Amino acid sequence: MSNASLRDQVARLATTDPEAAYERAKRIDAPWYRTQALSHVAKHMRPDAKSIKVLKESLQTAKSQDDPYAVCASSAWPIAVLIQRAQYKLAAAEVEEAFSLSTRIENRGSRVQALLLLLQAAFALGLKYQTRIIRGIPRYVEPGPQLASAARYKKRAPNACSTRPRAS
Q1: Predicted structure pTM score
Q2: With contact defined as beta carbons under 8 Å apart, do 118 and 99 qualify?
């Protein structure tokens, strides 16, 4: 069975039997999928010290990966559950760490994707974190050929891009 299938199986099982799901999640080889599976388990556990322990395990699993994109992006799952569990201080610290790590993601598109996952997870932390993540995105995205093409088109056919009604 693939790691993705195991993660999906854990997610379904976690809704009815989080303990059994936890045991199954620990057997997932790929850290990316194990991080997500452990987050599903913690989400469905009683909100106590054990669920926080599972979330910390999920974060450690995310951080065990060598690829900065994989670490930053997969951290979004446990961060979202930390926020649902009102563990704002820990979630904020993890957002800061993931955001800092995002600067090491070489591919701009991957960096943007990781930051968007982080933004979605951390949105409930408030404007400070939303703004910081959003402001981080434009630094990494350069206008591509599509934007240059649109600008050339607008110069050649200004009326086609106007929102004003045409004169008859």
Answers
A1: 0.81
A2: yes
